[in-house]
Design brief:
507 residues, 19 strands, four-stranded antiparallel beta sheet, homodimer, alpha/beta, seven-stranded mixed beta sheet
Chain lengths: 507, 507
């Protein structure tokens, strides 16, 4: 227990963090419950922890070392705190520590008071005790050669566990030898883009709303992107037929990011049909497929045709972005090309977390964790909807009850000022126009703009003008001014305050 | 203990693997020693384990599932089981499992009976218990935001721990903000190559003996490589002066791979002097700097001029390749460029192993582990030298008493037949000519050759001919036919058998 004490004393455990119950911690550390309870008691008495009935034991609030905000490095400035589907939130690094010694909590002074940025799960809910106990079993049992250079496709234990899990939970038809484990979705998209480029594909269709760094990754592999417009049934996949050299399309069919709509059943069938007819490929980014609150999740598109759909998954929303674990389920004809692309770069990823995740899935802890998080996020979404209905009844929440974010429709022309106003009040959130394809590409050619580190949407906040046909879809669905609210992001104790701050800044 | 029992029963623990002592395991799992001892006893009684005085408790030998050998994927065939300094051993993946279910040991039927391939530490010695206990402390103490998307430079805890450690153990002058954590040496070299390319460097000098996939990585970033010849003082760095557009040089100064010689003090000074005079950069691959057996290790070259030398380290030899953890200590002027290159690719690596390694270093476990491994490898090297002196007295062992490999000089013209003969006897090892720059580049232009999956050296086994000036160095040091013997590779129990097999195949 000395480690816990040191962690709290030196500030490694952030204020407000809820500690596991003494029973849970004791059982995972193999200690008597009294030992843990005594240690907690001592730390409470010393003022390091607070214990309250119903809210558990938490790290007490106090001053922490302040660090200046992180300066983005040389290259392309980081495009604000984006981070939707299976993506990394850039520009949110905790800063380069200077004074901070090992164990000192490093926090940026520019950290917002309230964080509703989309793209992150509730990090305080990472199941540390269950993860450690899976790690203990996995590492104790691993064969020696698991510690060596391994298979670029990933550990066989994990590929088997994923094959079972994805079939059961997402309807994916996945043989282990079709699965390639990778360092999160970003590596998967990079490898796929390179593999497609190597097989002669020239362009990939994308949604007209999405994440600019996904498009960048595709471009960097030498491919063009072609945006597809949207309407209330989701992405207009029929436009694929007129985009002649497009041989692949990147979609988020279960829950579009950011607009929050699923792809309609007709369109699901149509896009698979297009792929069959043309020899094309659908890249299914299933970033939050486990989180559906109003019904059983829609099964993966991949189930319709495993030879024409690549299923892409990640633990970044279900567990933690810091794991950097994702996977692709590939058609047979792509496995060799993707592994070749992987062998030419960072071909291996850490085996220890792979073994641990395999055990975590196999022993049932992953299902348990997801059940718990589903309840938690569902409750948060309900709270958000209820608060808006009461305090801002003119604001409509669109998108299905799923995932970690909701879209709030704003009166035309108000988005930019709302996001800016929120920033002034210490509330971080994202405007919908930030994710517009046109906005991203305009900014790319304009030089300064998107890249200035501001989170303010650069698109036409006035909701019309140059976007032209690409906005028709959202105009049809109610206009293009909106907020993307990441209700998964804050820790539990900060959620009510964040919702309150949100209601205050709405027009 | 059920996990242990399952692991042994299902074959996840490979036959011959030595289990930790019941005392060590009990202490790490927080269990009573008797509990562990009882479980061991039961498994011994059931025939799953064997316990013998002096050799500890081991997994019993028995049939395991056999898998067909791994077919390399589409692209460039993997160049045999190379893997020297901070590099990945390609072509050694355990095969794509098909029948094997989670928990079934997957082994290739083509696995050699005796393995003296260079490039791997003793995987059976991975300090599982100490690592798990560091993981427990680190994860329990980590702030919540450690589970989110992080800083591309790596976790601050690890960069601080490395700064202290590298200063103390290797004489590196490393401020944490100059350290970038990356996924092993391979990612580091890739990022550095891209950063150099982006700053206008056109060519990098390399040793005339080294690893072809390092040269490939440099080429892929758009840079040329220029080989420097060698003599008994190490790499002829004076040749840098006549290679006009070379602005960087990749070296293994403490212990050249594969020839086993250090860079002489004069040459160390000369190469830093060259870098200062020309604005050049030395890339110091310190892959096995911790392992020196006859004296204190020579300090890192970086200590001579932190603004002109990039220090590159890895846990692949000191702990396990499967961790995929390495680091660069960068001159101030390169930090931005390297982070920009990292942000354009896999910018993040798993945080959990980073936090664990930080704790593992800080609590002293890393030093303890290295002390133990130093003793073990030293003993092995002594055994190798003694066996050769007795059974093959005409074979000279060259290179310093350091690292995980030794070079055995062979009579001119015998290398190819010795390596081939060893393969027939189930002994995997590598010929020196396999690492020749000329051999690699010839094979690249010839098409088939190196890439055929054979481990046989492709160079001029006859020790002369087209290599020209580049072989002068080794000719001066006693000829270019030789074996590179990785004495770190086998587990302890297999070492004597491997040495025996080696002595049998020597001419």
């Amino acid at each position: 227990m000395r480690a816990l004490r040191d962690a709290v004393r030196t500030g490694r455990l952030a204020p407000g963090v809820r500690l596991p119950s003494s029973r849970a911690l004791a059982s995972d550390l193999g200690l008597a419950r009294n030992t843990v309870a005594d240690a907690y008691g001592e730390l409470v008495a010393e003022g390091w922890l607070t214990a309250r009935q119903g809210s558990g034991t938490r790290v007490a609030r106090r001053a922490v070392f302040q660090e200046p905000a992180h300066e983005p490095p040389g290259g392309r400035p980081s495009p604000g705190s984006s981070g939707g589907p299976s993506g990394q939130r850039s520009g949110r690094s905790p800063g380069q520590p200077s004074r901070a010694r090992m164990g000192v909590s490093v926090r940026s002074s520019s950290r917002p008071a309230h964080d509703l940025m989309p793209g992150s799960p509730d990090l305080a809910s990472f199941p540390r005790a269950a993860w450690l106990s899976a790690a203990r079993r996995a590492l104790t049992a691993a064969p020696s050669d698991a510690f060596g250079y391994g298979d670029p496709a990933g550990r066989p234990e994990l590929r088997h566990a994923l094959a079972d899990y994805l079939a059961r939970a997402r309807g994916v038809r996945a043989a282990p030898e079709r699965i390639v484990v990778c360092a999160g979705f970003v590596q998967a998209l990079m490898l796929l883009s390179r593999a497609l480029s190597a097989t002669g594909v020239g362009a990939v269709a994308v949604d007209s709303y999405g994440l600019d760094f996904h498009w960048d990754l595709i471009h960097r592999a030498g491919l063009r992107t072609v945006p597809l417009s949207k309407d209330e049934h989701g992405t207009r996949v029929e436009e694929l037929d007129s985009a002649r050299d497009v041989r692949a399309v990147l979609l988020t069919p279960a829950h579009h990011f950011p607009t929050g709509m699923p792809l309609s059943p007709d369109r699901r069938a149509a896009v698979v049909d297009w792929a069959r007819r043309t020899g094309g490929l659908v890249l299914e980014d299933d970033y939050d497929g486990e989180f559906r609150y109003d019904r059983r999740p829609v099964g993966a598109l991949q189930g319709l045709d495993p030879e024409r759909v690549v299923h892409l998954g990640t633990t970044s929303k279900s567990l933690a972005p810091a794991l950097r674990l994702g996977w692709m389920v590939l058609p047979g004809h792509l496995v060799g090309e993707v592994l070749a692309a992987k062998s030419a770069a960072e071909r291996l990823i850490g085996a220890l977390d792979q073994l641990t995740l395999a055990e975590f899935i196999t022993c049932g802890a992953y299902d348990r964790h997801l059940r718990g998080m589903r309840l938690r996020y569902r409750r948060r979404r309900d709270q958000l909807v209820a608060a808006l209905a009461e305090r801002a009844p003119h604001i409509r929440v669109t998108g299905i009850a799923a995932g970690l974010h909701a879209v709030l429709e704003l009166p035309p022309g108000t988005e930019r000022s709302v996001v800016q106003g929120a920033a002034w009040q210490g509330l971080a959130l994202e405007g919908l126009s930030r994710y517009r394809y046109a906005a991203a590409t305009e900014a790319d050619s304009d030089g300064p703009g998107m890249g200035d580190g501001m989170d303010v949407g650069k698109g036409d906040g006035s909701g019309g003008g140059e976007g032209g046909g690409m906005d028709d879809g959202l105009a049809g669905a109610g206009g293009s001014d909106g907020l993307v609210v990441g209700y998964g992001t804050p820790p539990d104790h900060a959620f009510a305050g964040a919702i309150d701050a949100l209601c205050r800044v709405l027009p």
